[in-house]
């Protein structure tokens, strides 16, 4: 009769071996567990993914949570400010001002620890420009002067900053577009209003487009200036290129509508 005990021991050993293997696997942390959703790096990663998907509310939530762990990280503060800024652009008008104010607060915090950062001043210029749309005449003029200061400061630290050049170009365009009466009454109440120039605006906006060719709004703003300078064929080319570009921010849907309207008018 065959002795079956060795086989029984072999089967038992195999079972015990696999039991220990499965237990060991169960006790080993998986990759998702190692990358806890609450860590600083993970929150930044989640925020970046949400931002790229145009989910600005979720991006803000992730970045704000990360800021609670490190409120001095400049790169994080810029991401958070951008999420508030571009998020505001696609919100109902009644909600936009609060988002722009949050972006401004974040940037002012960033400036405290980074007083020579061109990107901070450039962003302060663009958010101040948006806030000016919600202000009355007296404050609007004061904010206009702040926009110029922020743009000048940004370009002082980095002459090739795309946002800084765009802000400066748009500022010159807006000033050049002021009517005689706007300039006259503004001068009475607020002192001399600086001159703007379409030619100067074109220089800065061309540079902004060259530095960031993917930005649809920069091409739209540049086309507006080119039209004022009777360079309509160049303006059309900028607008046609803008329409062919993929969306970079959610607000580009609205920006493409502006591009289409201007192209029809030229």
Structure description:
With 266 residues, this protein is mainly alpha-helical. The protein has helices at 5-27, 31-34, 40-52, 56-69, 74-89, 93-113, 118-132, 137-157, 162-176, 180-190, 198-211, 216-228, 232-244, 252-265. Helix 8 packs antiparallel against helix 9, helix 11 (198-211) packs antiparallel against helix 12 and helix 13 packs antiparallel against helix 14 (252-265). The model is unreliable at 4-35 and 183-191 (pLDDT under 50).
Which terms would index this structure?
about 270 residues, mainly alpha, 14 helices, globular
Identify low-pLDDT runs: 4-35, 183-191
- Strand runs, count: 0
Give the rounded overall mean pLDDT: 85
Helix-strand topology string:
HHHHHHHHHHHHHH
Backbone CA Rg: 27 Å
This entry's quaternary arrangement is single chain
Number of helices: 14
Q: Quote the beta fraction.
A: under 5%
Largest sheet data = none
Can you tell me the overall shape?
globular
Cα end-to-end separation:
103 Å
Structural class: mainly alpha
Percentage of helical residues?
over 70%
Topology overview:
Blueprint: H1 5-27, H2 31-34, H3 40-52, H4 56-69, H5 74-89, H6 93-113, H7 118-132, H8 137-157, H9 162-176, H10 180-190, H11 198-211, H12 216-228, H13 232-244, H14 252-265
Helix pairs in contact: 3-4, 4-5, 5-6, 5-7, 6-7, 7-8, 7-9, 8-9, 9-11, 9-12, 11-12, 12-13, 12-14, 13-14
Provide a brief overview of the structure.
The protein is mostly helical. It has helices at 5-27, 31-34, 40-52, 56-69, 74-89, 93-113, 118-132, 137-157, 162-176, 180-190, 198-211, 216-228, 232-244, 252-265.
């Amino acid at each position: 009769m065959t002795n079956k005990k060795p086989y029984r021991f072999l089967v038992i050993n195999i079972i015990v071996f696999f039991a220990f293997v499965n237990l060991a696997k169960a006790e080993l942390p998986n990759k998702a567990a190692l990358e806890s959703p609450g860590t600083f790096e993970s929150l930044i990663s989640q925020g970046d993914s949400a931002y790229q998907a145009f989910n600005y509310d979720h991006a803000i939530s992730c970045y704000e949570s990360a800021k609670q762990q490190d409120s001095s990280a400049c790169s994080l503060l810029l991401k958070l400010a951008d999420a508030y800024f571009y998020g505001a652009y696609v919100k109902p008008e009644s909600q936009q001002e609060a988002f722009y104010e949050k972006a401004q607060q974040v940037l002012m915090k960033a400036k405290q620890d980074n007083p020579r950062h061109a990107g901070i001043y450039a962003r302060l210029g663009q958010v101040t420009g948006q806030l000016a749309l919600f202000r009355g005449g007296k404050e609007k003029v004061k904010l206009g002067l702040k926009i110029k200061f922020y743009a000048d400061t940004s370009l002082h630290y980095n002459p090739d900053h795309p946002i800084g050049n765009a802000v400066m170009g748009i500022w010159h365009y807006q000033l050049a577009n002021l009517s005689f009466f706007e300039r006259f009454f503004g001068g009475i109440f607020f002192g001399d209003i600086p001159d703007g120039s379409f030619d100067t605006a074109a220089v800065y906006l061309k540079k902004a487009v060259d530095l960031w060719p993917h930005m649809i709004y920069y091409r739209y703003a540049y086309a507006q200036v080119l039209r004022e300078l009777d360079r309509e064929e160049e303006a059309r080319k900028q607008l046609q290129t803008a329409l062919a570009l993929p969306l970079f921010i959610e607000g580009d849907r609205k920006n493409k509508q502006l591009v289409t309207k201007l192209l029809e008018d030229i």
